């Protein structure tokens, strides 16, 4: 069964094909939620998040991580109807010896959602889900960029 699944190109949701030198990644900085998403992506991709930069194939340095929520529209009662979530961070790549592989880059992700005042608890859960998706998208963007940087440097 495993051979059939691997032959057809099946892979876990969120899994990313990583080069051998990315099987161990060290992340420096970042919030707990971002690090949790890194752990999930690495686990799905048969890689690991290293506890130290020693032996890591790449070091991802996170700077200026910021999550903002902004009201987009108000109801006739003055309650917020729609929100915009904005997540931004800067990152750069280095090797285990702290030699910069790629200068600082930014990732910015925006989402908006409708806030129905009758279902306020459900909307709070929806915002949490949207935030997790934004963290996941940021991690996938960073990991894909790291893969490209490492593959282009190896050639």
Automatic annotation (TrEMBL):
GO cellular-component term (any): cell outer membrane
InterPro entries assigned to the protein according to its UniProt record, in alphabetical order: LPS_assembly_LptE
Keywords (A to Z) from UniProt: Cell outer membrane, Lipoprotein, Membrane, Palmitate, Signal
A GO molecular function held by the record: lipopolysaccharide binding
One of the Pfam families matching this protein, by short name: LptE
Domain of life: Bacteria
Biological process, per Gene Ontology: Gram-negative-bacterium-type cell outer membrane assembly; lipopolysaccharide transport
Subunit comment: Component of the lipopolysaccharide transport and assembly complex. Interacts with LptD.
Family: Belongs to the LptE lipoprotein family.
Function: Together with LptD, is involved in the assembly of lipopolysaccharide (LPS) at the surface of the outer membrane. Required for the proper assembly of LptD. Binds LPS and may serve as the LPS recognition site at the outer membrane.
Protein name: LPS-assembly lipoprotein LptE
Organism per entry: Methylobacter tundripaludum
Taxonomic placement: Bacteria, Pseudomonadati, Pseudomonadota, Gammaproteobacteria, Methylococcales
């Amino acid at each position: 069964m495993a051979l059939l699944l691997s032959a057809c190109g099946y892979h876990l949701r969120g899994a990313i094909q990583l080069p051998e030198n990315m099987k161990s990644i060290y992340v420096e900085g970042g919030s707990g939620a971002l690090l949790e998403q890194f752990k999930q992506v690495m686990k799905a991709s048969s890689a690991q998040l290293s506890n130290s930069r020693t032996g890591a194939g790449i070091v991802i340095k996170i700077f200026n991580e910021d999550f903002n929520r902004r009201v987009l529209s108000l109801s006739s009662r003055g309650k917020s109807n729609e929100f915009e979530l904005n997540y931004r961070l800067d990152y750069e790549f280095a090797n285990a010896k702290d030699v910069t592989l790629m200068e600082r880059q930014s990732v910015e992700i925006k989402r908006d959602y409708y806030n129905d005042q009758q279902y306020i608890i459900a909307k709070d859960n929806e915002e949490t889900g949207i935030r997790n998706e934004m963290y996941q998208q940021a991690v996938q963007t960073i990991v894909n960029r790291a893969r490209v940087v490492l593959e282009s440097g190896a050639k």
